[in-house]
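The instructor's notes for this session suggest beginning with a concrete chain rather than abstract definitions. Hand out the sequence below and ask the class to guess, before any prediction is shown, which regions might be ordered.
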Amino acid sequence: MAKNKNVITNALGNTKALKIDFFKVQIIDGDKILLTTDGLTHVVNDRKIQQLLTKPDIEANVNDLIIAANNNGGPDNTTICLIRPMFKKPKRKLNYQNLFVLSLILLILSLVWFIWILNPRKALLRTILVKSIGN
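After discussion, reveal the predicted structure:
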């Protein structure tokens, strides 16, 4: 831990010009972002925090972190903000082979139905079916 870990080095309202620290990190699916106070980091080491973040349920993660801080004395208030970024799933590409097979099946069924409608020997059966459905 840092020697001056309790010293505030940047705060809102202490100067007219606001200095914001920016940095980039690559986040991948499954990562979690933890923003917390020294109420956690003073009493729970980084390795233990990392272990406590392995569950998929972030609410359980937060509860486990608070319990760990309290079990280690919890001399200070503990504030935890845990974020699990949500990534859009890539759209599935259209499988043209399956589309072709489905189209072929629909074409064959359409032809069979069309031939059955136009077949004169089926006229009596069609009449009976229409009358029985209509009644």
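Then share the key points. The helical segments are 38-41, 46-52, 58-71, 96-118, 123-134. The two ends are 87 Å apart (CA to CA).
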